What does this fold into?
Amino acid sequence: QKEVEQDPGPLSVPEGAIVSLNCTYSNSAFQYFMWYRQYSRKGPELLMYTYSSGNKEDGRFTAQVDKSSKYISLFIRDSQPSDSATYLCAMSGGYSSASKIIFGSGTRLSIRP
Amino acid sequence: EAQVTQNPRYLITVTGKKLTVTCSQNMNHEYMSWYRQDPGLGLRQIYYSMNVEVTDKGDVPEGYKVSRKEKRNFPLILESPSPNQTSLYFCASRHLVVGIGGSGANVLTFGAGSRLTVL
It folds into this structure.
């Protein structure tokens, strides 16, 4: 079993829809949770990060962590064609230099105009 | 502009022909690493370096070498490439962002990727 599971998609939704992207994990030591966005032919770039459980909002994006269920989500409101990309969740147990970051395999998202 | 630069972006080679993928960062980050990205497997770490002259194996180090002689550069070396090393490779540097109340994250800045095909 992988430490981090993520549905690969592809997920296709119409412009303006609310998108929900999810990851589950098995390691209860994870405390730092990140979402990276990767456009085609580009490297991943950090979108959001959260610590422990709770919600964090940044514009149209909301990251949610439920540590009791070992489940994290990224919500995109009013989705735009420019949001079409692969979204990777990532997590680690700490933020020291020695902390390993584990990535999900990514969900490919397509927003239809 | 803060960035990680890797070259070449695209390379087709043959089995056994040594190659080097260069990586350079201009952010003075101590930590650098190499990943490979394969469909369904996500990003897997090959090697990482916590500082100059300090390198260590990641999850999939077989068939690769690295060196870190100066802080800004972290080349990936394939001494004798094989077809199972056909992949998309990313170099990244990492730094810590500390927020309020213990929040924060290790933020990875990735290069644009190097697509390698070994025939």
Summary: Chain A touches chain B at residues 6, 8, 32, 34, 36, 41-46, 49-52, 88, 92, 95, 97-101, 103-106 (CB under 8 Å). The mean pLDDT of chain A is 92.
